[in-house]
Amino acid sequence: MKKNLKIGLFGYGVVGQGVYEILTQNKTFGAEVVKICVKDRKKRRNLPESHFTFEKNDILLNPEIDLIIEVINHADEAFDIITTALKNGKKVVTANKKMLAEHLAELVKLQQEQNVSLLYEGSSCGSIPIIRNLEEYYDNELLYSIRGIFNSSSNYILSKVYNENVDFDIALKKAQDLGFAETDPTLDLAGYDALFKLVIIAAHAYGVFVKPEEVLNAGIMNFSRFDMQFAKEKGYKIKLISTVRKVGDDKVAMFVLPEFVTEDRQLYNVEYEYNAVVVEAAFSDKQFFQGKGAGGHPTGSAIFSDISANMYDYKYGYKKHYQENKLSYTTDLPIEIYLRYYEEHNLNQFQFEKITERYYGKDFSYVIGTIKISNLLKIKDYLNTADIQVINTGKLNDI
Predict the structure, then answer these.
(1) Which residues are catalytic?
(2) Where would I find the beta strands (DSSP E) of 234-333?
(3) What is the distance between the alpha carbons of residues 259 and 261, in angstroms, rounded to a whole number?
(4) Class in CATH terms, 131-299+325-392
């Protein structure tokens, strides 16, 4: 049965304002924002002061409020807000992917104990409704893999560089000016943002709860014109791809890496601030989702969907997590990578099983070879800090 909702909103940045605007513009929706909690007392805002509070308990302990929406940046503060809200019997909607990825198993247990809902469609892939689809449409489907572009900042930058021949630093600055990338873009460029989303999606797709630090992620922190030159000569585009896939009968592997994408792949034409997800399954075959991944309204639309679901007391079922024959997580998977480097000692870090191509040049060198995810995971920090670039060739994706 549909219910009217009294809402307490934490955060009034780009996403918070987007949520508020969507709610207030829909006059027949049946939800009211009672109070908004913000941190900065000096910041000027576009609503009267009476709408705001600086004390979280004004919302968390308010018996009139039955739904909490959390859209702040700080993961630890968000975790405190959400756990307190759930313990007080309040429903929660959040978009905080870092907090969810780090605490998902704990939060699932808490919401089950308290018999309240925690929904977070806005945490993963912006406006694409991937979590609800995994929960409802694919709940009993045998999934082979889920792959996609989960980070719009890196995709915007790579699109500018590839399509417009813009220097990487200029493309990054443009992404920051548009609000697609943070002042400190490390989370986006090193693949951490995409990693958090992948961990969340894997929990719904395969029922596995994996800590972010146990998953390989390498991004485009050290991307160079030589990498783009190589890709263009081969007819590839470079995309930062998140992958979770079934390995054998009882395991799943997952990783985030830049990848050479060929023209015949659906992700090839996903450009700028768009996200995309490709779901490959036994019965429904291959399906493709695309939508904007950055900005207040795309994320706000996903949060709005969660608010609407709360009106009907919807909860995630986590059916694949609770099934008898659970899958386990593995890093014992070979992939083929391109490794661009300048100094020969960089190669000492890599335990290649087989090298199929080598190039020694005056400006740069590269090798292409097969290596296990487990060996790359051992040097995860090195991949994002050394003056090298690792790119998945994509040729072993179907193993």
Answers:
(1) 197
(2) 237-247, 251-261, 274-281, 285-292, 328-329
(3) 6
(4) alpha beta
Q: Are 367 and 355 in contact (CB under 8 A)?
A: yes
Beta bridge mates, 358:
367
Counting every residue written for the chain, the total comes to 399
Strands 365-372 and 31-37: unpaired
Rounded-to-integer distance, Cα 243 and Cα 250, Å: 17
Residue 87 CB neighbours (<10 A): 13
Residue 19 tokens read as 């949520």
Domain range summary for the chain, segments of one domain joined by +? 5-119, 131-299+325-392
What one-character DSSP code corresponds to residue 127? T
Helix (H) or strand (E) holding 302: helix 296-310
Q: Give the pairing of strands 216-217 and 285-292.
A: unpaired
Q: How far is CA 197 from the centre of its chain?
A: 3
Q: Are 293 and 152 in contact (CB under 8 A)?
A: yes
Cα gap 188→182, rounded to integer Å: 8
Compute the half-sphere exposure of residue 210: CA atoms within 13 Å on the CB side of its CA: 30
Beta-strand ranges (E) seen in 293-380 are: 328-329, 334-341, 354-360, 365-372
Determine contact, residues 83/108, Cβ cutoff 8 Å: no
The conformational region for residue 38 under phi > 0 = left, psi -120 to 50 = alpha, else beta, is beta
Q: How far apart are CA 268 and CA 300, in angstroms?
A: 27
- Residue of 170, 10, 272 lying closest to 19 (CA atoms): 10
Answer yes or no: CATH 3.40.309.10 is held by domain 5-119. Answer: no
pLDDT per position in the chain (399 positions), as tens? 566 899 999 999 888 998 898 888 887 788 899 999 999 988 889 899 999 999 999 999 999 999 999 999 899 999 999 999 999 999 999 999 999 999 999 999 999 999 999 999 999 998 899 999 999 999 989 999 999 999 999 999 999 999 999 999 999 999 999 888 888 899 999 999 999 999 999 999 999 999 999 999 999 999 999 999 999 999 999 999 999 999 999 999 999 999 999 999 999 999 999 999 999 999 999 999 999 987 777 888 899 999 999 999 999 999 999 887 889 999 999 999 999 999 999 999 999 999 999 999 999 999 999 999 999 999 999 999 999 999 999 987 655
- Single pTM value for the model: 0.95
State the number of CA atoms in the 13 A half-sphere of 207 facing the CB. Answer: 20
Cα pseudo-dihedral 115, 18, 291, 104, rounded to 10: -30
